[in-house]
Structure formats: structure tokens, C-alpha cells
Amino acid sequence: GYYYGFSNEGLWPLCHIAHTRPVFRNEDWTHYKRVNEKYAQAVAEELAGTKDPFVLIQDYHFALLPKLIRHIRPDAKIAIFWHIPWPNPESFGICPWSKELLLGLLGADLIGFHIQFHCNNFLDTADRLLESRIDWEQFAVNRAGHKTVVKPFPIGIATGNPNSTNGTAQAAARQEVLRRLGHPVKWLGVGVDRIDYTKGISERFRAIEHFLEKHPEFKEQFTFVELAAPSRTIIKRYNDLGDELEKEAREINQRLQTRTWKPIIFRKEHHNREEIDLFYHAADLCLVTSLHDGMNLVGKEFVWSRSDERGVLVLSRFAGASRQLKDALLVNPYDIEEVAEAIYKAATMPPEEQRARMARMRSILDEHNVYRWAADITTELDRIRSDTPKG
């Protein structure tokens, strides 16, 4: 009820607005409250004997936790980072317990999102649903004598030790992948996703089909490999989606394949880091076509893996990563024609343009890595503590 129910049948589709109806059940809400209370007690025990502690809470599973901890330890400075999108007030108001969730979150001193747009949506929601004063200059919510700052902290990846992919290493990775595929194609695309209706995998498959129909010279020369990990299969929508995607890939292959070639290879299984890196190194392009995503780190992983500065990222403009990776080919994932043309542009992009785009994106990733993300949150929380009047 806590994890599969309220968190992932309720809050997940509510916040992603991906046209899957959220489900809210009283018994799930009861479990959600109880689990948050359990964590609050565990945090209180951990903080015993600690003066003026910092507490960092992560994600939508713990929306009630800031207020609960605030009640137990009013001296604590509390931050919560919300990893998924925050929708507009009308959408969030669908939840029967929207006010309780907001009040829980506003127990924090600092609420972080990936991008400013989600911060704005949160402030609009608090303004609409609660009696509060919104400070739009400071991006803060003032309620019942407590101030909560709302800021963007775009999460990054660990960039300290990039996977070296010089020309020799890339060629070896390419050779190994093509050996596994059993057909020496000229262009290779890759996607890496949990099987989730927010990731736009079905739209991606249809765009690949349209690309091959519109540019038949790429038939038998282009293969797309989707590394798809089953996720939350206890939820019917997720279980059904895996079967639907297998069926769609099979039908596209039946229409287009030849005796020795398939356009789409759909691998529905859990993949280890080594295998994912192998495909990142071998691919000419990576498709990230999320219908809605707080950030999406797959695109960042692909870019950082390419120290050879080759390859092209096709990225949904509805993923938070698109705010930073402007040298990707940005697309509307619902627009099959646009995605198909982006695939064509990626496949035909000159090497010098690939290098220029990759170099700029890799520089951004190195500057805004996960260590800076963590440091920025704790630095901001420390600033808030310093600004808070004593007594």
C-alpha cells in the first residue's frame, strides 16, 4: 500500500501527467502515513544526542516526513529533494490528500527540484491550495511562522573517473556488440530504460519504424537496441506494458525485417553496468524520449561515457536534462515525424559536429556533477540555518 499503492499508483502518475490515471485508495494512504511515521521515529533515534542536525530526505515516498521530523526535532534543519516533476495546481489537486502532502513538505526548510519550472509549479500549488504567503523574489513559502525555500538543484552523475573510450576501445566495443547481434550494421542506436509508461518507449519504436520507411536506404544498415529493465511488475499497468512493448517490437520487425536483419532488438531483462557501458560505447546515437521526466540520467551517462566525443544524443524536451544538454537533438517525443527526422540527422551528422556538441555537453556534466549537487543542497541548508534568528 505504501510503495506500490500510494507512491507508485498514485503520486507517480499524478506528477508525471503521462496519461495514466492515478489511483488513490484510503488504505494506501493509511499505509503511506504509517511508513512515514516509522521513518520519522527512526530518524529521531538516529539524531539523539546531536545538536542542530541537518536532515536530507529524498523523493516522493516521504512527503510527510519533513513535518513529522520538525515536530520531533524543531532544532533540525530539514531539506527534501523531490526527484520527479511537480505538476500544475489543477493536476496536483486531484489527490484527495493534496493539502496534507503540501503541509508535510512545508515542514522542510528547503525543498529542491531538478528545474525551476517544477519549483514554480510547487509555489503555484501552495498558493492555490493553502493559506500561505508566497515570496516570489526569494522563491519561498511562508506559513504559520515558518519559511520554506524552494530552489532547483539539477542532479548530475559521478564524473570523477570517466570510462575511457579511445578509438581502439570504441572499435572493440562495436565489434563485440555486432557479434552479439549477428549482423554487421553501419549504424547502431541504443535506449536504456526501466519499463515505464513515462519513458516513451512505444513512441520511440514507432519513430524508428517511420524513420526506416521514410529513409529506406537505412534498412539493413540501422539497428536499434532497447535495454529494458522490468520494473514494478506487481502493478498491472507495468506488467501489461512489458508485454505490449514486446508485441509492438515484434510487429514492427515482422513488417520490416529481412532474413538476416531486424530493425529493433528488445531486451527485456535486468542489465548490469558493464553491459550498458558496452552499448553506450558502441552506439552511434542514444534515444531518450521520455514523455515527462524530472531529470533522466541516461542521456548524461551516454554523453559522459563518450570520451572519444563521438555519438549523438536525441533527447526529449520534456526531460529535465534538456535544460542543460542543449547540444543534444531536442525533440517532442509525441511527434513521431520529428523524432524520426532527429534519428536521420543523428545518423548523418558529420564527425566534427558530433565532437563539438559532445565536448560542450561533457564540460557541462563535469561542472554540474552529483558531488556539486549534494554540496549545493547542503550549502543552501547551511545558509538558511545561518539566516534563521536564534531563540
Task: Explain what you see.
- There is one protein chain.
- With 391 residues, this protein is α/β, with parallel strands linked by helices.
- It is built from 14 helices and twelve strands.
- The protein has helices at residues 2-16, 26-47, 65-72, 89-92, 98-105, 116-129, 167-181, 201-214, 236-256, 273-282, 298-305, 336-347, 351-367, 370-387; strands spanning 54-58, 77-81, 110-113, 133-135, 140-143, 146-152, 187-194, 222-229, 264-268, 285-288, 312-316, 329-331.
- The strands form two sheets. Strands 1-2-3-6-5-4 form a six-stranded mixed β-sheet, with helices on both faces.
- Strand 1, helix 3 and strand 2 form a beta-alpha-beta unit.
- The longest helix is centred in the first third of the chain and has 22 residues, at 26-47.
- The radius of gyration is 23 Å and the shape is globular.
- It starts with a helix and ends with a helix.
- The mean pLDDT is 95.
How far apart the termini lie comes to: 41 Å
Total beta strands? 12
Q: Enumerate how many helices there are, as a single number.
A: 14
Percent of sequence in beta strands:
15-25%
Could you report the average pLDDT, rounded to the nearest whole number? 95
Order of helices and strands: HHEHEHHEHEEEHEHEHEHEHEEHHH
Overall shape: it is globular
Radius of gyration: 23 Å
Unreliable segments of 5+ consecutive residues: none
Largest sheet: 6 strands, mixed
Structural class of the secondary elements? alpha/beta
The spatial strand order of the largest sheet comes to: 1-2-3-6-5-4
Helix content: 40-55%
